[in-house]
Amino acid sequence: MSLVVPAVLPSSRKDFEEKLALFTRLPSVNRVQIDVVDGEFASPASWPYSAPAELEALVERGDMLPQLDRIAYEIDLMCLDADRVASAWLSFGATRLTFHVESVTDVPQLLASVRSRYGNFISPGLAINIASDPVLIEQNLGEIRYVQFMGIARIGRQGQPFDERVFEKVRIFHEQHPEIPVQVDGGVSLKNASRLLALGVSSLIIGSALARASNSAAALAVFEELQSPYGV
To answer: Bridge partners of 75?
Structure first.
């Protein structure tokens, strides 16, 4: 699996399609993260929360995400109704679901529900905010495939400043659970990527550093030159 995972935070359906087209045409990309923000748990609301009827129409029409034969889609559910919303994205062909522990009142129940309904068809992961205690995810590690540490204080927006507190959180977690893949989302740049990898991160979720680059393919290539001793 790729070290670098482009992140798409769509403001509209057109923006969604354009960003997916940008990343899916790059041969080295085999994972894409789609950020789903409800405007309550995190803000501002992203598409399709800003246009729910469009999502319903896509489901009814049976649309699928592009290039499913080579790209695994990961849905970062920054929303309070993640369990409900997940089903729509799974119908589009997504295979990885990231749930934020702070958005759920009963994480074990949520994961049990996901497992009973979808079985081995998906890979669930848990995300945790920079200010939260990792103890929130400890009891659920046997039910997930990966952990996502947020590298920014305010989630739901791309281009936020990197929060260096994540370095220590990643270090401690990886030392305690070296078998669990770790990814960091938010504020990832060439300035901090090497240190994150050295501390045990296996995947870098990168949004604005790629989307805002004058040449996204060239920017991605530079990140991919980095070496990590850990794989997904």
So the answer is: 34, 97
Q: How far is CA 138 from CA 98, 141, 184, 223, in A?
A: 16, 6, 17, 30
In the chain, the number of structural domains is: 1
Domain containing residue 127: 4-224
Q: Is 141 part of a structural domain of the chain?
A: yes
Does residue 85 lie in a domain region? yes
pLDDT tens figures, 93-137: 999 999 999 999 999 999 999 989 888 789 999 999 999 999 999
- Distances in whole angstroms, Cα of residue 229 to Cα of each of 3, 62, 125, 201, 232: 11, 40, 21, 9, 10
Strand residue runs (E) in 52-166: 72-78, 96-100, 123-128, 146-150
* pTM: predicted TM-score of the whole model, two decimal places: 0.94
**Chain Cα centroid distance, residue 219:** 19
Residue 63 lies in a domain: yes
Provide the total of helices (H) and of strands (E) in the chain, helices listed first.
Answer: 9, 8
CATH of the domain at 71: 3.20.20.70
Residues 3-35 pLDDT 10s:
999 999 999 999 999 999 999 999 989 999 999
